[in-house]
Amino acid sequence: MTAPRAAYLHIPFCQRRCFYCDFAVVPLGDHADGANSGSIAAYLPLLQAEIAASPNPAPLSTVYIGGGTPSLLTPRQMEGVLDGLRQRFGFAPGAEITLEMDPASFDRPRLEGMLALGINRVSLGGQSFDDGVLERLGRRHRRQDLLQAAGWLRQALAAGDLASWSLDLIQGLPEQDLSHWRQQLRQALELEPPHLSVYDLIVEPGTVFERLQQRGQLPLPDPDLGADLMDLTGEQLRSAGYGRYEISNYARPGHASRHNRVYWSGAGWWGFGLGATSAPYGQRLARPRTREAYAAWLQTRAASQPAGRPPFDEWLMVGLRRREGVNLERLARAAGLSTADCTSLHGWMALWRERGLLLVEGRRWRLADPQGLALSNAVLRELLAWWDAHQPQEVHLAESPIASSP
User: How far is 10 from 25, CA to CA, in rounded Å?
Assistant: First the structure.
């Protein structure tokens, strides 16, 4: 089997935890920085040790450094991380190397230092242009910080020091209406980011937002308004020249994230760092979410046995969310579904096709844009119910049946 050519690195440190966040993060305080943090200094050797122990290395075509807030690291610390990857794997010519950056965590010299290391793509966590919303999200940055950071990225792109950058936004926030969201999109488009990721707010277990929701203090948009917000997003971004290549991701020509497409194509990737998930050769493995447990895991490697291969329903959900869709017949054959189950699956899919939510193009099925994507959660929930009723015993797929299927 071909060794993965993509790697995700998790830098778990943040200055504070946002109220919607359930990621594996370690809050350090509003004034924390890689230069003065003992926690960061203690973590980086563990990350380096995991990278150095990787089996079957092959040159990496994409690297994504996420978190957390990776831009809390100093350029010198980041250089050590990239050198570890370079020594163990090497980078393929033209490799896409993405760094997540929080607007309140860096200045222009730090950005320039990161770009000098070979980082050529930045994902900027803006989330909102509204200071009141940012405060209610628990974010540290404010609108002016976001505008300033985006300005530096635009200048770096124009100078050829950066190949691309992306802006993250969240829709479906408490008390949000169409007028407010239209203003948010207008401000985003004025910055001309080559790529936009627009995420629906999901209230995750254990978060501040979940506690507020349980107390009736989180007034979220109703489902109809949520669908209208998504429709408005698609309409505005299409008009501005952005193509939707995955349910939450929009890009101008030539700026789709190659690393994102690894995930949604079903191809394998390496994962490094506490809380990170890897899926080399179709085998999914999640690492411990605390530094102490992660350090113990590195010592024993007892947990290095695969946690399980992504099953048929996961590959189908991944495929449907992509613009390219999924070859249903090939997927069913790879999963070993019976003829009767294949017929049942086709019938289930056809019902959604009749409603205009699924499209068939040749042998590939995909969610319609925008109707199917707007109702994707409903479609995928019913898909999971179908799978629970029909799945064979112990059916798993060792390799992605959707990555290169026609």
Answer: 9
Domains with residue ranges and CATH for the chain: 6-265 (3.20.20.70), 312-390 (1.10.10)
55: pLDDT strictly greater than 90: no
Q: Give the C-alpha separation, 195 to 215, whole Å.
A: 37
Alpha-carbon radius of gyration of the chain: 21
What span, in angstroms and rounded, lies between the C-alpha atoms of 200 and 173?
8
Average pLDDT over residues 175-187: 97
Distance CA 173, CA 135 (A): 12
pTM of the model: 0.81
Report d(CA 349, CA 325) in Å as an integer.
13
Name the DSSP class of 355: T
What does the block give as tokens for 190? 């004025």
Selection from 111, 95, 145, 154 nearest residue 125 by Cα: 145
Interval 310-336: pLDDT, tens: 556 666 666 776 667 777 777 776 666
Going by their DSSP bridges, the two strands 364-367 and 326-327 should be labelled as antiparallel
Closest CA to 317 of 358, 256, 371, 275: 358
What is the crossing angle of helices 75-88 and 38-52, to 10°?
10
Question: Each residue of 306-337: b (16+ CB within 10 Å) or e?
Answer: eeebbbbbbbbbbbbbbbbbbbbeebbebbeb
Give the 3-state secondary structure of residue 395.
coil
